[in-house]
Specification:
By secondary structure, the protein is an all-alpha fold. It has one domain (2-414). Helices cover 86% and strands 0% of the residues. The protein has helices spanning 2-36, 38-59, 62-69, 75-105, 113-138, 142-153, 157-166, 173-196, 208-217, 219-243, 245-282, 286-318, 325-329, 331-356, 360-406, 411-414. Helix 10 (219-243) runs antiparallel to helix 11 and helix 11 (245-282) runs parallel beside helix 14. The longest helix is centred in the C-terminal third of the chain and has 47 residues, at 360-406.
Length: 415
C-alpha cells in the first residue's frame, strides 16, 4: 500500500507539472498566433522541431542505452556516465555552433546574428536538458525531471506574455527567444544543487571506454530514434516547403494543442512505467511485467480519451478570442488531428512495452516503416489537396502505424 501511495503522489506531481507546462505552451502558442501571426508561429514550430530533433540526431542513440543501464545502478557508477555524455555533447556543439553563426553572418541562413546566437543557446540547452531528462527517468526521478521541464519550457511564458502586453513594441520573435533562453538558465540554477549536494561533483570523470561501448550498443536504437524523430516532425518541414510559413503556423497550432494530450499522458503515465517494466524484465518476472504493461495501456488510454473530449468541447469556446477566424474554418481539421494523436499515443505505448523487453530491432523496423508511410501520406496529401491533404494524411499514417504494431504483435502472446 505504501508503494502504491508513493506512486500515486508521484503521478499527481508529474501530472501537475506537465499540466502547468502544457497550459503555458498553449498560452504561448495562442499568444504568438494572436499577436505575432502565423508566420512567426510557423518559425517557432520549426525551432521547436530542430531543438527536439538535435538531441536525437546528435545523440547517437545513447539515451536509450543509458536509460536502461541506469535503472537501480549505484550513484558512483551513474555520474561518470553523465559526465562523459555531457562532455561529448559539448564537443559536438563547439564545432556546430560557430559554423552556424558564421553562416548567419554571411547570410547563408536568413537569420540575423542575434537570433542565431539565441537559437544556438536554446538548441544546445535543450539537448543537455533532454539528456538529463532521460537520465532522471532512468533513475526513477520522474517528478524532478518534469519540474525541470516546467522551469525551462513554461515558467518563463507568463513573464514573456506580461512583458509583451505591457510593452507592445517588444512583440518580436527575438523577444520570445530571449525569454526562452532565460528559462534555460533558471533551470540550470535549479538543477545545480543536485551536483553540489554531498560533493557529488567529486565522482564526475570521463569514461571513454564506456562511451565507445555505449555507441556500439546504441546503433540499433540510434536508427530507431532517427526514424521516430523524422516521423514526428517532417510534416511541418514539408508544409513550409510547399505551402509557406503561414500554413505551417496553422498546422502547428492544431498539432501543438492536440499533442499536449500525448505529451501529458506519455510523460505522466507511459514514461514512468518504463523503468518499472525494465526492472521486472531484468528480474525475469513475466507476470509482474504483463500486469504493469496492462495497467499502463489502460491508464494511458482512458486518460487520453477523457482529455481529448475536454479539448474538443473547449476549442470552439476559446478560439474566437484569438481573433483568427481562419482557425474556426479549420475546426474539422482539429478533430481529425485529435483522433490521430490518440492513435499515436497507443503506438507509443506499445513501443515502450517492446522497448522494455530489449526488442530494439523490432521497434526500429516499426519506426522506419512508419517513417516511410508518413512521408508518402504527407507528400501525396500536400501535392493533391494542400493543407487538407496533410491533415488527412496524418490520420492515415497513424492508422497504419497502429496496425503495424498491433497486427501480429509480440504483445499478443506476452500480455
Amino acid at each position: 500500500m505504501a508503494i502504491l501511495k508513493i506512486r500515486s503522489i508521484e503521478h499527481a506531481s508529474i501530472i501537475g507539472a506537465r499540466s502547468l507546462t502544457l497550459a503555458a505552451k498553449f498560452a504561448l502558442t495562442a499568444f504568438v498566433a494572436r499577436f505575432l501571426g502565423f508566420s512567426d508561429l510557423g518559425l517557432y514550430g520549426l525551432l521547436v522541431a530542430v531543438s527536439t530533433m538535435a538531441p536525437i540526431i546528435l545523440g547517437l542513440g545513447l539515451n536509450g542505452v543509458i536509460q536502461r543501464d541506469l535503472v537501480d545502478m549505484p550513484l558512483s557508477g551513474v555520474l561518470p556516465h553523465i559526465t562523459t555524455r555531457f562532455v561529448f555533447n559539448i564537443a559536438i556543439y563547439l564545432v556546430l555552433i560557430p559554423a552556424f553563426l558564421i553562416g548567419c553572418s554571411l547570410r547563408v541562413f536568413q537569420i540575423n546574428l542575434v537570433d542565431g546566437v539565441l537559437m544556438s543557446a536554446i538548441v544546445f540547452s535543450e539537448h543537455i536538458f533532454n539528456d538529463l531528462h532521460a537520465i532522471l527517468i532512468g533513475r526513477r526521478r520522474a517528478a524532478f525531471a518534469n519540474v525541470l521541464l516546467f522551469v525551462r519550457s513554461a515558467a518563463w511564458v507568463p513573464f514573456y506574455v506580461a512583458s509583451n502586453l505591457l510593452f507592445p513594441q517588444s512583440r518580436t520573435f527575438t523577444s520570445l527567444l530571449v525569454f526562452w533562453t532565460a528559462g534555460m538558465v533558471v533551470a540550470g540554477v535549479v538543477f545545480l544543487p543536485n551536483m553540489l549536494r554531498d560533493a557529488r561533483w567529486r565522482e564526475m570523470r570521463i569514461d571513454p571506454d564506456w562511451l565507445i561501448e555505449g555507441i556500439r550498443r546504441s546503433r540499433v536504437l540510434y536508427v530507431y530514434d532517427l526514424a521516430t524523430s523524422l516521423t514526428q516532425y517532417m510534416d511541418r518541414f514539408i508544409i513550409s516547403s510547399f505551402l509557406g510559413l503561414e500554413a505551417t503556423g496553422i498546422y502547428v497550432f492544431f498539432w501543438s494543442v492536440a499533442s499536449a494530450i500525448n505529451n501529458l499522458v506519455y510523460a505522466s503515465i507511459t514514461q514512468t512505467y518504463v523503468p518499472v517494466l525494465v526492472g521486472w524484465r531484468k528480474q525475469h518476472n513475466e507476470a509482474a511485467f504483463a500486469a504493469a504493461a496492462k495497467r499502463m495501456l489502460l491508464e494511458s488510454g482512458a486518460t487520453s480519451i477523457v482529455l481529448s473530449v475536454c479539448l474538443w468541447v473547449i476549442f470552439p469556446i476559446v478560439v474566437p478570442y484569438l481573433q483568427r477566424p481562419v482557425l474556426l474554418s479549420w475546426s474539422w481539421g482539429f478533430g481529425v488531428v485529435l483522433i490521430a494523436t490518440q492513435l499515436r499515443l497507443l503506438s507509443d505505448a506499445v513501443t515502450a512495452i517492446v522497448y522494455s523487453r530489449y526488442m530494439d530491432a523490432r521497434i526500429t523496423l516499426w519506426a522506419w516503416l512508419s517513417l516511410a508511410l508518413t512521408g508518402v501520406c504527407d507528400l501525396v496529401g500536400v501535392t493533391s489537396a494542400g493543407l487538407t491533404g496533410v491533415i488527412w494524411g496524418y490520420l492515415a499514417a497513424t492508422i497504419g502505424m497502429c496496425a503495424l504494431r498491433l497486427v501480429r504483435s509480440p504483445l499478443r502472446q506476452q500480455l
